[in-house]
Amino acid sequence: MPSLTEKDRPIVQLLLNTGTCPRCILRFCCVGSQTLYRRPHKDLMKDLKEFLKNNKEKEDTVCLEVVDPPCKRIRLEHAEEEPDDLNHNGALQQIPSVNDENTAMETSAVKVCNVCLGILQEFCKADFVKKVCQKINSANYQFTSFVFSVSLPPQLSVREHAAWLLVKQEMGKLGLSLAKDDIVQLKEAYKWIIHPQFLFEVSVVFAHPETEEECHFLATACPDCFKPAKNKQSVFTRMAVIKALEKIKEEDFLKHFPCPPSSPKNLCVALEIQCNNGAVFVAGRYNKYSRNLPQTPWIIDGERKLESSVEELISEHLMAEFKADSFNFSSSGREDVDVRTLGNGRPFAIELVNPRRIHFTAEEMKGLQQTINNSSDKIQVRDLQLVTREAIGRMKEGEEEKTKTYSALIWTDKAIQKEDIAFLDDIKELKLDQKTPLRVLHRRPLAVRCRIIHTMKSEYIDEHHFRLHLKTQAGTYIKEFVHGDFGRTKPNIGSLLNRTADILELDVESVDVDWPPAL
Fold first, then answer.
1. Which fold has domain 404-511?
2. How do the domains of the chain map onto residue ranges?
3. Which parts of the chain have pLDDT scores under 70?
4. What is the SS3 assignment for 171?
5. DSSP strand E in 315-367: where?
6. The CATH number of the domain covering residues in 282-400
7. Contact 497/421 with Cβ under 8 angstroms?
8. Which member of 43, 84, 252, 336 is catalytic?
9. Cα 358 from Cα 388, distance rounded (Å)
10. What is the pLDDT of residues 372-391, one digit of tens each?
11. Most exposed: 20, 254, 377, 430, by fewest CB within 10 Å?
12. What is the pLDDT of residues 441-471, one digit of tens each?
């Protein structure tokens, strides 16, 4: 049974007198009972007043009676109405305040809480929870459970710090202490009250325009804590404010901020209620039959070069079916725009961000695969399936460790006979030193990479052409192995044949990564 003890009496009395709400008082008394925070505001206020009335000699410990905790998996749309804490015009109703001398109850209007700015007063009631439910229902998401999160104004940390200094000073007079880390975090208390157990995420973003400049003095006292960032609209983030509060001296803080914090005129506002589903991952293998199709959109200096790409031909159908906001495409290596991928294809995975639909049967995935394949003759996909984020790591592991098989059509400047290329078939485990190719030097660091050609098999065509089948270490630049890249790849086909060689066509025949599982 959660309880307040005699040592909590001065904290309760002090914070009530300075305009702090009952739930914030419980936080500063380090009460960890989730159920207790869910009690209506009026009941909590009544219990705190009864606690202060109790005679110390009669009872050293007063237990706050609580009902059994409700089922965690509640249906929020049927949540029972709690007693209203606000009157019809939006102002907080009249509740008694506490007199320091005799703890007599006087009637006066309770203002918005000077610590939580009304978040633990107004935004814990069934009406607001219903708004959250309506937002979820209107967003049309598929989900079985969800995560509830809140985004709090950074000035709440400043106000909490001020209240903590006040309480710490009062307890010091009694020979007691209160560590800041022992205070129940406002976010935790709020989630306890709402207590949804709904990996779908609902996020409520709070703001309080009236007090938004209260953090600004910290920028002067601790300038190192507030540095501009590309993705941040303001330097005064919650984490930056907390870091500054850890650094600033108490005396410097008290020079700039009132202790106790003043009571604001207005409540916080809920700027928005955001719904986000956890990402869904789809994997498979693709074949690419076009020599004029890049794997990803081909954009140079802001100008698109070709109208489509492998990732777009696949993802447009997945995006439509999963109703996702965006996607991230990855694969086990990549082929050039003029290279085909044949055989059993190249493994790929697509992360679908914030999908509305997440449940697909094996038959539905098979139908989706057929839809993709019917939409274009440039690509085909196979083994399309839902996978976990962790499983994608198996695909990435194969990029450098596994082997790949290629077929290259090669031209030579000097005439060749079949016996001139036959020796290539006998070369095994040929070690190459490949300096970063000139064609990719603008996007890859300059380095010399050691790669291995495991086997080669030549197929004579005519005096100036032959086909070479190669099994190589993943990451080998095949084109450069053929023409030498002005001596940047050694040895190369040109140097082995002692003549100029160039590559006319290249096909990927297999990517030896055993993932995803064949269906």
1. Alpha-Beta Plaits (3.30.70)
2. 7-55+113-214+257-276, 282-400, 404-511
3. 1-3, 55-110, 194-201, 230-233, 398-400
4. helix
5. 326-331, 340-353
6. 3.30.70.2510
7. yes
8. 336
9. 13
10. 999 999 999 999 999 999 88
11. 377
12. 988 999 999 999 999 999 999 999 999 999 9
